[in-house]
Specification:
269 residues; 2 domains; four-stranded mixed sheet; three-stranded antiparallel sheet; 23% strand
């Protein structure tokens, strides 16, 4: 496993070969997803401590005052309305509306630590016909670029993160960075963007785009198209961006990237 204290981190994005996905290379843009769009319905969906909902106003009388003041209610009316407010909280949680609202302002860009995962090539690069983008993340990069790109490790667990309703400092990062152990094969890390939110955002190809690898099953026609995209990125950034082609082992269940500087990715001689 890579040393997390290394001066340069290498992270990977598996993509299907489409014009929009090629924009990672040709235009220097990344697609930050909304949590509700993920294929895993448990992703970014915490469990809630229901007891903390039903006794929220006894634990947090400041909330009663804040809600009451905002609605201009008398102390008596506030007491009468507490049951209704609790029912609304439970309904929002049970319907999923609160979870969707929780993640509405978060944009998430997913990466992997592993460039040779046969499952990732199959699932996210359309059966090895897509491509892999390698990012190099130097700790010497300018602060703003680094903080907006730096991915955080996903934690794999048996239970969903549990939020206490009305917690003064809820651990939202735990919510966005915890998944079921069933997904451990992805070796995932995530860049979280709560400033710009979901959408298409630029990144510095000059700083972070390191190499591109074509899938082992990519057609020659698509490989030429990928080569053109890499050539454009080289011209735009005035730097060399290596283009490799993945290779399937003839004897084991392994994916190689011949010519890559990491010896572990090269086939045995």
């Amino acid at each position: 496993m890579e040393d997390d204290n290394a001066d340069v981190l290498y992270r990977y994005k598996y993509r299907e070969m489409t014009d929009d996905n090629l924009k990672i290379i040709t235009e220097g843009t990344l697609s930050f997803s909304r949590p509700s769009d993920f294929n895993d319905p448990f992703d970014c969906s915490p469990a809630y401590d229901r007891e903390s909902m039903t006794d929220i106003f006894s634990r947090r009388p400041d909330l009663v005052k804040r809600v009451g003041d905002s609605k201009g209610l008398s102390p008596a009316k506030r007491i009468q309305q507490k049951g209704k407010w609790v029912a609304n909280i439970l309904r929002a949680v049970d319907s999923g509306a609160w979870t969707e609202q929780l993640g509405a302002q978060a944009g998430i860009f997913c990466l992997s630590r592993n460039p040779s995962s046969q499952l990732m090539w199959a699932h996210y690069a359309k059966n090895h016909t897509g491509f892999l983008v390698e990012f190099s993340i130097s700790m010497d990069a300018p602060y703003l670029d680094l903080t907006e790109f730096m991915p955080l490790p996903v934690r794999y667990a048996d239970e969903r993160p549990r939020l206490e309703w009305g917690a003064v400092k809820p651990d939202f990062e735990d919510v966005f960075l915890t998944k079921s152990r069933d997904w451990e094969y992805e070796e995932e890390e995530r860049t979280l963007d709560v400033r710009r939110g979901p959408g298409i955002h630029p990144y510095s190809r000059q700083l972070f785009l390191n190499s591109v690898t074509a899938g082992a099953r990519m057609s020659d026609e698509m490989f030429e198209k990928l080569k053109l995209a890499v050539t454009k990125a080289e011209q735009d950034t005035d730097k060399e961006i290596p283009l490799y082609r993945a290779q399937l082992s003839g004897s084991t269940y392994e994916v190689y990237i011949p010519g890559h500087p990491d010896p572990k990715l090269n086939p045995p001689s």
